[in-house]
Amino acid sequence: MKYGYFDDAKKEYVITTPATPYPWINYLGSQEFFSLISNTGGGYSFYKDAKLRRITRYRYNNVPLDLGGGRYYYLYDNGEFWSPGYSPAKKELDAYECRHGMGYTKITGKRNDIETEITFFVPLNYNGEVHKVVVTNSGKKPKEVKLFSFLEWCLWNAQDDQANFQRNFNTGEVEIKGSVIYHKTEYKERRDHYAFFSVNAPIDGYDSDRESFLGTYNGFDNPQAVAAGKSNNSVADGWSPIASHSLLLTLEPGESRELVFILGYVENSLEEKWESKNVINKQKAEAMIAKFATADAVDKALEELSNYWEELLSKYNLASGDDKLNRMVNIWNQYQCMVTFNLSRSASYFESGIGRGMGFRDSNQDLLGFLHQIPDRARERIIDLASTQLEDGGAYHQYQPLTKRGNDEIGGNFNDDPLWLVLAVVAYIKETGDYSILDVMTPYDNDTSKAAPLSDHIKRAFDHVINNLGPHGLPLIGRADWNDCLNLNCFSMEPGESFQTTTSKDGRVAESVMIAGMFVYIGKEYTALMEKVGNTAEADRATMEVRKMKDVIMEHGFDGEWFLRAYDDFGRKVGSNECEEGKIFIESQGFCVMGGCGIEDGKAIKALDAVEERLGTKYGLVLNNPAFTKYYVEYGEISTYPAGYKENAGIFCHNNAWIMCAEAVMGRGDKAFDYYTRIAPAYTEEYSEIHRMEPYVYSQMVAGKDAKRFGEAKNSWLTGTASWNFVAISQFILGIKPDYDGLKVDPSIPRDWEGYQVTRSFRGDTYKITVKNPNHVSAGIASLTVDGKVVEGNIIPVALDGKLHEVEVILG
Amino acid sequence: MKYGYFDDAKKEYVITTPATPYPWINYLGSQEFFSLISNTGGGYSFYKDAKLRRITRYRYNNVPLDLGGGRYYYLYDNGEFWSPGYSPAKKELDAYECRHGMGYTKITGKRNDIETEITFFVPLNYNGEVHKVVVTNSGKKPKEVKLFSFLEWCLWNAQDDQANFQRNFNTGEVEIKGSVIYHKTEYKERRDHYAFFSVNAPIDGYDSDRESFLGTYNGFDNPQAVAAGKSNNSVADGWSPIASHSLLLTLEPGESRELVFILGYVENSLEEKWESKNVINKQKAEAMIAKFATADAVDKALEELSNYWEELLSKYNLASGDDKLNRMVNIWNQYQCMVTFNLSRSASYFESGIGRGMGFRDSNQDLLGFLHQIPDRARERIIDLASTQLEDGGAYHQYQPLTKRGNDEIGGNFNDDPLWLVLAVVAYIKETGDYSILDVMTPYDNDTSKAAPLSDHIKRAFDHVINNLGPHGLPLIGRADWNDCLNLNCFSMEPGESFQTTTSKDGRVAESVMIAGMFVYIGKEYTALMEKVGNTAEADRATMEVRKMKDVIMEHGFDGEWFLRAYDDFGRKVGSNECEEGKIFIESQGFCVMGGCGIEDGKAIKALDAVEERLGTKYGLVLNNPAFTKYYVEYGEISTYPAGYKENAGIFCHNNAWIMCAEAVMGRGDKAFDYYTRIAPAYTEEYSEIHRMEPYVYSQMVAGKDAKRFGEAKNSWLTGTASWNFVAISQFILGIKPDYDGLKVDPSIPRDWEGYQVTRSFRGDTYKITVKNPNHVSAGIASLTVDGKVVEGNIIPVALDGKLHEVEVILG
C-alpha cells in the first residue's frame, strides 16, 4: 500500500494523507542551520549542534505521535479553526498534500473554501527557516479569516531543557517588537545568541507565553487563543516561551494573500550584544528579515535552492529503463547522502539529538557517497575528523559538531575506526586528484602542537591495525568494530550499563575477522595511493602487511563454508558452524570478498552463497543467523536485542551494500542488483504499510525474519546505508568508479539489462557514458570509446578540458 | 480563590475541580516504592531511584499539561467513554472529587449514572501501587459498562528512555498470563527486575502495545481501543509497551463492583530469574497479587496505613485556636517532612528524577523535621550520608539512592555541606538520647577500608571549616555554600555551562559569612555534644574556635546595619550597602543571629529590622535586594535569573525559616509568627489562583516583588522549607525543643495568644504540654510544672517510663 507517489520531474515525494504509517520527514538546511520537518509540520530546528543549540522544542516519543512540537499554523474562520497541515488542529480537511523536495517541504491544506499553501525551507547561506504562506479564498464569497502561527522555543540545550525544570521554568525571556518575537533566554548572561520569529506584515496580536496561548490544560490541538480567534498579547516570563502571531486576512473570492514568516538565529559578540540595557541588539535579525521582506525575494531564494540541487544532482545522472532505480540514483539516494554527510547520526526522528555528536567511522563512510557533490566540504570534514584522531592512530569515536572536539564521554578503542579515515582520504583523492590534502598539517587530539601531515595520519591509521594484532595475527577488536554491539571485551553484568561507554577490558585476545577483511580491502587502496605518490618503500611495506593479513584470514578466518566473524576473549570462534547461535555473520563475508580473499580457491563464492542461503530474506539480508535468543556476556550488546531486531539478526541495511559490492566484485551482477532492490526505498514503496518508514530514504534497519514485525523498518534517514548503497549501485553495479587517472568503467549488472546511460561530472569535465549490453553479460568490457576513439582497458582518461565527452561502452 | 478545602478530620485535602491552577499532586509510598500522583491520576512510579528504576513513563513539560502519563482509567458506556479522574479522556463529569490523604489518593468521578471511586496507595512493606476501583450504578436502570485500565512502561532508566530511541524502540518485551501483564524489557539480559500490572478478576481483553491501544496518531484522550469498546489483545514487540485491561461490568441499579489493580515491582536473583527459557519466574509477583486478592484485604492495608500515619503524626500534636496552624503542624508539614526525607530533591513535578540523586546538605537538613517520626530511619540515613563524606571532611554534594555512592558527576567543594552533618547528628542524639551512633564505624568515600567512628566524621566536618579559612579568617566558600547559585569561584563565560559541575577555581579568597554564622550556631551544638560525651578537651578547642569565628564575624562580617553575605574572589564585599545590587542577603542574617552574633550590642536586632524593611513582602521575605539586573561573572548563577525569581530575589521559603528562628531567638514572637504565616501553605490557600501550587505543602520559591509574577510559587514539595519550617514552628515558635536531658520549653509566640497545647512523644514517653500566656508576653517562662510538680529551669526531664505526663507552662 502506498501513501503517496514520486513526482520525479519535481524531485519530490508527494504524500497524499496525513495518516502515514509513521511521520514521514524531510530535512531543511545543508550548512549550519538545520530543521527536521514531518509531513504535518512537526519537528524542530537547530544551529550546528542538535544538543547544544536547539532552537525549537520537540518532544520525542510523544503521545499523540509527532504532536510534540513543530511550526504550527491555524486558520480561524467564524468560530471554527483548522490547520492546513492537518496537525496540530486535526480537523478534517477537504484537501491535503505534502511535497517533500530537495531542501524544502510544501504543505497544502484546504477547508471552508480556504486553501493554504506553506513552503518551508532554509535559504542558502542563511541561518533561518523561511515559511512562505499563501492563503487563497477559493470560494465564491468574501472571507475574513484569522491566521495564527505558533512555535515553541527550546531553552537552547536540548538535554537540559527536558530535565532541569527547577531552573528552566524561571529563566524564559522574550522581547517583542513590531511583528517580531525575539527569544532571548539566558542572553542576559552568557549566551551570545538569540532567535526570532517574524512575519512580513503588521499583526493583530501575538502570544509569547505558552499557557496564555493554549490555556493551562489544553493541547496543541485546541489552543484557547485560536478557539477564541484572538491572541492575548502575552509576554513570557519564565515557564515556556513561545512565539505566535495572529493576522486578520480579508479575502475576496479568488484572492490570495502571501506572507513570509522567518524563524531565525543570530549570534552577537560580547561587544555588540545590547542596544540598551537589557534590550538586545537586533541589527542582524532585522537584516535577515529585510532580506525576505517580499514573497518575490522568497521565490528567488527557492529558485536558487532548486538550481543548487540541480547542479549537485547533475554530477551523477542515470538513465535506465527502471524508474525506481533512476529516482534512487538520481534523486533520493544522493539527497540522503547529503543529509548523512551533514548530520552523521545526530538528529532524526530516532536520534534525539542529545545522545551523541558526529561519529568518526560514520562520517568517514558518509563521505564516500557525498564527496562527488561538494569535494571542498568533504575535504574540510576529513581534516576535522583527522584532527580528533589520537597519536597512536586510534580515534575518538564521536565529536561534537559545535566544538569539533572528541567526545570524552564516549571515548575510543573501536578498532575499525582508523581504517575508515584511510578509505575516505583515498576516495577524496580519486574524486578530485587533489593530492595536496596529504600535506595538510593536521593536529592529533585537536592539539595543534601535535600536528602532522595528513599522510602521517593515514599511515598511523594503517599501523594501528598491525600494532594491535591478537593471538592468530588477526586485528584485535577493541571495544567493538563496525558492529558497535559486538562487544567482546565488555563482560557487562550491570543492568542498564552502556556497552559503548562502560569500562571495557584491554583485551588482547578477541580478534575481528571483519577488521582483517577491511584491512586487506583498504590496505590495498593505501598501497595504491603510496605507489601513486611515489612512496614505494611504504607501498612495499603495506603490500607485505596486506598479503600477510590475507594469509592469516585464509588460515584462521575461514570456517569451511564462510568467513568467521571473530574470536572472542576466550579465543573461541564467533560466527562459526560450531556455534549454537550466530553461526554466520554478514560483515566479514562482505569485506573479505571485497578484499579479494578466497577468490582464487572458490571460498569467496562459497561464502556469498552461504550468505544468500542463510541470511537472505525478501526484505534484505539479516546480519547474523540464527539470532541470539539469550544474553551472551562474552558477546555483549548484540545479544541484548530481541531476535530479529537491530544487530541481532535484523536486516541492517548498511552491510547489505557490502554484499552487493562483493557480488559485484565476483561479477555476479544479478545477485548484486537483486540485493539492491530488496532494500532500496523506492522498491519498498509498494508495501509501505509493512515497511512504515519513508519510501524515499533508507532506514538503518528492517526487522528480520526472526522478528514478529518482519519487514518493519526503523531509524530512517541517518544511516551509513545511504552512502554505501550509493557506492554499491553507482560504482560497483553501474560500475562508474573514480580512479586516480580517470573514471574506471567496471559494471556488474543483471544479465537481462540492455544497457543504460550515466552522465558523470568529474574534475570539471562531463562524461556521458553509454553502456550497451548486446551479449547479455553481467560484467566485462568488450570495448570502450571516448569521443569516438577506442581506449584500451577500462579507464576513461581524465580530459581536464571542462567539456562534455561521449563515452560508449560495450559489455561482453 | 480556593480549588478545594481541608478535611482535617480525615487528614485530607479535597480538590473539587480537575482544573487546578497547576496539577496538585501527592506522594504514595514511604519506603522503597514511590509514586507521584496528580489530582487527575497523572504521574509515575519508581523503585528507590527515580532515574535508574523508573517503572512507568511520564512526560515532563507535556502539552497538554500533565497528560504525559499516569495510571489512567476509562469507562465505556454504549458508544461513549470518559475517565473518572477527568483526565485523560477529558469528558465533562457530573461529579468530581480528589482527596489527597496521608499516603493515598482517592479520586471519584461520576457520569452517566456511573460513579467510580479509585483509591491509590502503596501498602506498607510492599513494592507496588494498589488501585481499589469501585464502580457503582447509581441510576435506576441496569448498566453494562466496560472498564479500561492503562499505564505505560518506562524502559527502566528514565534518562535513556527519553533519548536512546534507536535502541529503545527495539527492546520492549512483555508477557501476558491471565489478567496480569508483565513488563520484562531487558530482563532477558542483565536486568534482575520486572514489573507487572494485574487485576483480580478475569479480563475481557488487554493491550500491551501502545500504538495498538491508541491508534497511530491518537492521544491518551482518545484511544481507539476505548472508543471502540474493545481491546486488541496486542502483544508489545519493541516500540512502547503498555499495560491495559478491559473488563465488562454488568451492574444492577445500586450495585457496586470492587476491583483491585496492582502495579508491582519484582527483583529476582540470577539463579531464580526464569521459569523456563525466556519465561520469567512469576512467583514473587503472584504472591504479591495474592496478598490483595480481595477488596477486604485492600481495606485492611489502607487501615494499616492510616494507623501508621496516625501513630507518626501523634508524636507532635498541637491544639491552638488557629485551624490553619493546627493543620500545618499536625498534618501537612510533618507529612511533607516525610516526603522530603524519602526523596530529597530527586523526583517531583519540577525535579525530573533524572537530574540528580539525594543531596548531602539537603538530606541532612530534611532529617531535622523528620527524625522525631522514625528515628531508626534517620539513623540509617545519617550513616549513609556520612559514608559519602570525604577524608578531608568535605562531602560529595549528592549521591544516588540506588547505589548509595557519591555522585562523581556533581562532585563536591560546597563548603557548607559538612556542617549540616554535625547538625543532623546533634539533632538525632537530642531526639533519641542514642549516643551510640557516635561509635558507628563509618566509611569515608564509601570505602570501608577507610572507616572511622561517626564522631570522627563530625570532627572532620567541623575542622573542614577551620582548615579552609580565607584572608579575613572567614570560611572559604568553595564552589558555593547553601546558596548553590552564589558561585564566587566559577567565573563562567561559556553559554549553558553548569555552575554546579564546571571546573571552579580553587579559590582561596572568596569567603562566606553565612558559613561563618553556621559555624558559630552549629559549632556551639558541637561543643555541647562534646561536653556531653565527656570530651572536654575537644569541647574547649571547639569553644575557642567558635569564639574566634564570632569575633571575626563581628569585625569583618558586619556592614553597619546588617551582616555581609560574603567576600568575592577579589576580596570585595558581597551583600553590602556599598554594592550597587544585592546590597543585603537573607542567609547570613539568619545564621549569624541564630548563632548569637550581635545580640549583646544590638546589631542582631538591627540586622533583623533591615531584613523586614528591605526583604519583607506580603508573600514572604525575598532572598536579596535589590535584585541583580545583569550578569556578574564574579557572582555566578544567582545573577543569571531574571529579577525576582529563584535565588535572585525570589522568596526562597527555606531561608525564611531561619529568620523566623532568629526572631524567635531574639524573643520577637510576633514577627517570627508573622513571617511563618506569610509562607505557610494553609495560609496561601485563599489566593491559590496567584500562588498556584498545592496549598497543603511548601514550595521552594515564590516569585518576589521584582518579578512580574509576584506571588506565584514554583517547585512544590521537595524543598528544605518543609523541614526548617517545622523546626521553626515546633521548636522555635511553639518552643518545644528536644534536648539531651529532656524537652526544653522555650516559646516565642505572638503576644496576643492565650496559650496552646502540644502533645509530644519523646523517647517513649508522652508529654502533654499546656502553655498559658496570661500576661501576653512573647517569650520567657514564669513557671513549669510536670505532673503537678514544679521544675526549675525550662527543661522537662525525661521520664523514660513510657507514660503520659501532664506539663503546665506559664509564660511571663
What does this structure look like?
Two copies of one chain form a homodimer. Chain A has 812 residues and is of the alpha+beta class. Among the domains of chain A are: 7-310, Glycoside hydrolase, family 65, N-terminal domain (Beta-galactosidase, Chain A, domain 5, Distorted Sandwich), CATH 2.70.98; 736-811, Maltose phosphorylase, domain 3, CATH 2.60.420. In chain A, 28% of the residues lie in helices and 27% in strands. Chain A has 20 helices and 45 strands. In chain A, the strands form twelve sheets. Chain A has a ten-stranded antiparallel β-sheet with strand order 1-2-9-10-11-12-19-16-15-14, with helices on one face. In chain A, a hairpin with a 2-residue loop joins strand 26 and strand 27. In chain A, helix 12 (513-532) runs antiparallel to helix 13. The radius of gyration of chain A is 27 Å and the shape is globular. The two termini of chain A are 40 Å apart. The mean pLDDT of chain A is 97. Chains A and B meet through helix 2 and helix 3 of A and helix 2 of B.
Summarize the structure.
By secondary structure, the first copy, chain A, is an alpha+beta fold. Chain A has 20 helices and 45 strands.
Radius of gyration of chain A: 27 Å
CATH fold naming of the domain at 7-310 in chain A:
Beta-galactosidase, Chain A, domain 5
Unreliable stretches of chain A: none
Oligomer: homodimer
Question: Helical residue percent of chain A?
Answer: 25-40%
CATH architecture of the domain at 7-310 in chain A: Distorted Sandwich
Distance between the termini of chain A: 40 Å
| Count of alpha/pi helices of chain A | 20
General form of chain A? globular
Largest sheet of chain A, in brief, is: 10 strands, antiparallel
Strand content of chain A: 25-35%
The named CATH superfamily of the domain at 7-310 in chain A: Glycoside hydrolase, family 65, N-terminal domain
Average of per-residue pLDDT values of chain A = 97
- For the secondary structure, the number of strands of chain A is 45
The chain pair forming the largest interface, with residue counts per chain, is: A-B, 81 and 80 residues
**Could you name the CATH class of the domain at 7-310 in chain A?**
Mainly Beta
Major sheet: arrangement of strands of chain A: 1-2-9-10-11-12-19-16-15-14
What is the structural class of chain A? alpha+beta
